[in-house]
## 1
Amino acid sequence: MSDAPALTRRDVLVLLGATAAACASPLADLPLPPAALTADPFTLGVASGDPVPEGVILWTRLAVDPTVADGAMPAEPVAVGWEIARDAAFRRVVAAGWDWAQPQDGHAFEVDATDLPTDTRLYYRFVVGDWTSPVGRTRTAPAPGAPVTSLRIVLASCQDWRDGYWTAWEDAVAQEPDLVLFVGDYIYENAGTDVREHAGGEAVDLAGYRTRYAQYRSDPALQAAHAACPWVVTWDDHEVDNDYAPDTPEDGASVTGAAFDARRADAWRAFREAMPLRAPKADADGAFQLYRRLGWGDLLDLFVLDTRQYRDGPGDRDDTDRTMLGATQRAWLVDQLGAGGTRWRALVQSLVMADLTFGGIAVNRQQWDAFTAERRAVLDAAASAPTLVVSGDRHAGLLAHLGPEGAGGDVVAVEVSSNSISSDGDVDAGEAAFKAAWANQEHVDYAQAARRGYALLDVTPDAITVTFRVVERVGEPGAPASTDASFTIARDLTVT
Ligand code: FE
Ligand code: CA
């Protein structure tokens, strides 16, 4: 008989703990209730968003069949486990847990993962029953004031499924960005077919909007872009209704106020469900605060704006009471811009701020040209430190230097507008020339409406390099992508 002491219970636990840390993820140890599913529920991919120094939002949505509004999911809660690690093999897990995905949320599942290592590349995944999700890559932000030498951003907007393939997303993923800024028209609500077909008719209720988001998220290129890095998103009009204001539907003749209120609430709620957002859940009216501030060390502050939820409908563009932001958001923004502190700041929002009028006529009354007093107030506040305005909506790449009124005078900010990922599709030369004619103005440095694409922003302490990437065509998948133009913005806002 050996006299060797028996292992104590504590020794066994230590050994098991060491083994678990080296070989198995904590997911296996979570007290996860089983799920009565007959097929893989991770058909819509994974996403992350709104990174802060010690946290990031993790997202997925369960659907065994993405073509139907309820995802062919059971009408009951489903238990979802999650974990986030320093490595893609999940040997160095830094946080894990589980919770319920609820049927009333369309089985959308969102985790605010906290107590994470700062300024760190991380990997995450989810588990339901016997199914494990694809692995997503994300990261936390640097601490406030921490020195940061570079940040690579993809700026994108306007991905009309019908108009073509999302080759631009494949090219964007290949750039290995730290962050994607998406500034609106994530979905298009309309019915119809062009290169691809929108499933169902025009989205007008919760089931319709959920189905539209699911169709978009079923695209492998978009899934890959969400899995590549955290996104920071805001919206424009097509997430609800073309050119809408809260009290002004596109087709006011046939939609009554109450019916549009209900439609708008469903659209806002569906957007909130579909996005990884550091924001409250939508209330009974679908409303929630989307505008927010996110920091990136001493390099960049992002002021993410909501240009739709609080805006006035049609009116005199020079009316001094007119608002696109609403009084509360505008006061917050002006106050925050006055504080300063980082090398750069960016206004992340959907609509072009540069003056694009012709002969004093605001050609596009959705844009800041139809809100002149508020534009002046925002640019006045922005002038105190180097400011980049980013936008989308025009389905054209654009770079412009902004004077106090959106043009002319001393330069107070530089605007970069992203081309569309697919919206407008492959246009002929005549249409492209017509569309770009508005850009033939002294303060516009660049305009490209002929090809689809996005803008790559390489932010460093002393300069921002803007690279406009375009794809040759979107009418078929896999077309080549290339750089159409590249500019450098210095801290004195000169553009070369
Ligand atoms: Fe658009
Ligand atoms: Ca738009």
Note: The mean pLDDT is 92.
## 2
Amino acid sequence: MNFSEFIEVYASHPNYRAPRGNQLHAKSWQTEAPLRMLLNNLDSEVAENPEELVVYGGTGQAARNKEALQQIIKELLLLDENHSLLIQSGKAVGIVRTHPEAPRVLIANSNLVPAWANWEHFEKLKQDGLMMYGQMTAGSWIYIGSQGILQGTYETFMACGKKYFNNDLKHKLLVSGGMGGMGGAQPLAATMAGATFLGVDIDPERIRKRLHSGYIDQIVFTYREAADLALQAQEKGEAISIGLVADIGDTLQNLLNDGIVPDILTDQTSAHDPLHGYVPNGISLEEAFSLRKADPNKYRELSMKSMARHVGLMLELQKLGSITFDYGNNLREMAKQGGETNAYDYDGFTPKFIRPLFCEGKGPFRWAALSGDPNDIYATDQALIEAFPENKEMINWLKKARERVSFQGLPARICWLGMGEREKAGLLFNDLVKSGKVKAPLVIGRDHLDCGSVASPNRETEKMKDGSDAVSDWPLLNLMSNTAGGATWVSFHHGGGVGMGYSQHAGMVVLADGTDRAAECIRRVLYNDPAMGIFRHHDAGYEIATDTLNHFGMGLSI
Ligand code: NAD
């Protein structure tokens, strides 16, 4: 198949789809893999808005524009194993001489010198065609749809249940805003954890997308109906999810007026981006689209004022007893700038629930089957269940995921694994490819939201014990370790999750193609990557990290 035929079949804008099966289009699996994952990120089953090349998280893109995308595809089809492709904010800019165990693609997205690192400067560069927003896994080509955040969300809700509700979320009402790419995982995670869920989104299409993927149970259009359904389900202890088309601020106000206090309250609107992510209170979606273009400053101002009100209402509900936490969208900061001086009076999810896992090198390990065959993922599920009989939580998760998660795009799986476990799983997967038990290679990656890959003081590194929240040497060391270790593609981004100026983070994907070369790369990368989380948390003074470091004999020589 020549280049134009390839584009016609797999990338005729905006109908993108990764090739399936075990026939190569590129020169080797090392370049076929990023090619398929790039196209998979843009598949309409996966991406929130393929027309704009937007994958998730507000404006998180996979490539800068249509022309840049075609150029990347062309380069990946031609690249050999002694060269690597350079991507600068979603555009191919050069090829460098490397070697077969080096990453085939080196990606840098949305990075700005700190004093210029704000949305205003970024927007100007974007308008001039010089940059794109890469979010975390959008510009680094390892987004796998809402499942990518599903287990993390499930673990967070379960941890909340353990800490505050005697390990039982039955008869508990969980309320959240934002049913987009990531936020859309909340309804399924909540019902998997046993809670009743009310999710609010201003855009009906976003809730319909979750209905289609089986992540949410029903859509309603009036507050009254939503509240009645939620209260009945909560009373009966039914784990069902309801999606209400409305503004989240108005809904929280209505709940307060009616004296309905959610047991758990959080939010995943795209608050990190007050211009393109959050829709201000009191205007329709259509009005929002036109105001965004006509008067961006006014839009931003309205947006931040609405967020101040939104957080003010969350604080009131917290006072009445709702367990309230920030879910990684920088809502508190935007609300503070919008006038809510007490915005930080509730904690973020990392210090509240997740940090102990990070101290063990645990994080959102994920993999995708390049064959496109769901049976390949079921084979990996089974192999993990057999290889980790002692890990009951993981087995429980994999069984639930198989029952409840429908795949979007290439079949994929997420499963939080820690130090030692990731390397073991990766080698196991490489053996499955080698022995032909799966039909084509697998790619193994993760979110940038991981134990040692991100500096984000309002999120992953909030309230670090030693005050090192804003130190971004760590994600840079993570990037360098994974590059030196031989990941198949690596990335370094700015602004993911929480927006410009608030985070820096690194990503990696390593290929399991059944070769000895892949086994060596996997052994190094899947050691280095979780090790960074342990080094980072040990250095910050966390005992669990020090214990894990000692357990694995990873300390420096004395
Ligand atoms: P998205 O842009 O796909 O979805 C955001 C949704 O919020 C949209 O559906 C939009 O209609 C809705 N919305 C905006 N304003 C609203 C309002 N006033 N009332 C009701 N709904 C409103 O984004 P996403 O991928 O779902 O990510 C959501 C946020 O979470 C982002 O800020 C992202 O950076 C962050 N995030 C968090 C994590 C995490 O681990 N907690 C991970 C990834 C992303």
Note: Residues 48, 56-58, 149, 152, 177-183, 200-203, 206, 247-248, 268-272, 277-279, 327-329, 449, 497 surround nicotinamide-adenine-dinucleotide (CB under 6 Å).
